[in-house]
Each structure stands twice: as C-alpha cells, then as structure tokens.
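Dear support,

I submitted the protein below through the web form. The confirmation email said the job was done, but the results page showed an empty box. After a refresh the structure appeared. I'm attaching both so you can tell me whether what I see now is the final result or a partial one.
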Amino acid sequence: MITGVMVLGFDSEIPECRRVTEECVRRLAERGHSNVAGAFYRGHPSETEALDELTAMHADPIVVLPLVVSEGELSVHRMPKAMGMPDNCCSFTYDSEGHEAAVRFSTSFNWHIKVTELLEKRIMEAGGRSGDGILLIRHGSSMSYSAKDSAKHAERLREKGYTVEEASLSETGSIGKALSRLRAEVAGRIIAVPLTIVWTERSAQILAGASEGEEMTMAAPLGADGLMIEVMESKIPEGWRRTPGYAGKALCQIFVKHLAVALYGSDDCYDYLISYY
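What the results page shows now:
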C-alpha cells in the first residue's frame, strides 16, 4: 500500500485558488510524493472525488492538507463534514467501492514560524524595510484562532522592526481602525500584507472600500511558495509517508515510539513495548 496526499483548496471557480492548489500538488509531487491529488471544498474535483481517485490507486493511508491559514469553521467543521468525517474527529476510515483507507485531516498553517518568514519575504518583495507600516490582513473567523495566529505573526514582525497593525476582512470597521492607528505611528509608506493563501477580487474590493483612498503598497499573498510547501510536508507524519503496509500498524508504531520517549526519555525500549501491540 502507498500513502496518498490530498491538497484541499477552497473553490475551483476562483482562478487563483485553483492555480495555487494545482501548484501545491505539483510541488509536493516533485518532492517525492507520488500519489497527490488536488480537491476543492467548492467545485471539482470534490473531496470525495479525490478520495475515490486515491483509494482507486490503493492509497492507504491518506492525509488531507487544507489550504487554510488558521483553524475556523471551514477547517474544523465544514471541510471534514463534506468528506464524511464524523464530528469532532480528525481521522476516519473511507470506503470506496470496497477499497478502504485510513484518512487523517491535518491542521491548518496556524502560527508556524515559516509562515512568519514568508510574510517578511513578501514585505521585502514589495520593497519594504524596517520602519515601514504593515497592515496585516486576515480573513477573520468566528473562532479565536485566526486572531491569535495573526497576533503571533505580528509580534514576530515587530521584533524585526516593523510597525504592524492587524485587520480582518470580515469585521466591519477593522481595516479603517487599523489604518488610523498606523497613520498615527508611521509617516511613510504603508504595505498591505495578506495573511491569506490567495488574494481574491472580493478581498481587494473590501480593502478598497474600507481604506477610504489611503495609498498603500500591496504585497503578495502566501500562495504556493516553497516555505508553504515545507510546512505542508511537515504535516505528513513520518509513519504516514511513503510507508508500505497497513496504516494501523504504522500509526501504532508512531504512538509506541512517542510513548517510549514520554515514559523513559528515549526510544531504547521501543522493541520491548511494541511487542505488546
């Protein structure tokens, strides 16, 4: 059996979303993952269509990598539910025409240090330098993770010498208030930096409407940069990666190795413990 990887984008009808999703699939394949499929929460191929494709290739287990910056309703509830995953679960068994596969839904990018590094890279690509005003723009969510992740990235950027204010596309007045605070602190240039995978036409319209004519330099979104690919690959556990054999055995081996380290400080007793499983 072989490990399968699903890269899960948001909407196939949004050209930039489709482009980034397909680019992530291509780059993961170039890094040695031979069974990678793209899918979309909205559009085609759907999540179940991608699972059918991977199970038809006898992929087992399958790890799902959502192209979502922070945990929220989309990644915690809506995306997993669309593929048939039970509530409050991060893994389940998928059956497609007699082919079963263990499926694990991975976490979002959250406040990973490489995401912060990429934000700084985007700032520098836009001609930014220490002392510039940075408007860090997230989508926003009813859950608190989005704001917490943004705050962590902002804190790290401030340590680099940038003046940073955070704003949310989904919160009324958020962008205007953040710009007012920036203008009180910075006399020079303001760079708008999306803490998003893609920057859509709708996002641009929201920013333009809320900025009231404020001149800003626009940085690129996170996209399918190599740093994002590194984070995605880090979310494929070693036991799930190009590993032959039954998925349950691989997961059991991972658990026992971590148990050995937790109990005894090393995995020297791994062979002894695994004999009981």
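Response: this is the final, complete result; the empty box was a page-load delay. The first strand starts at residue 2 and ends at 11.
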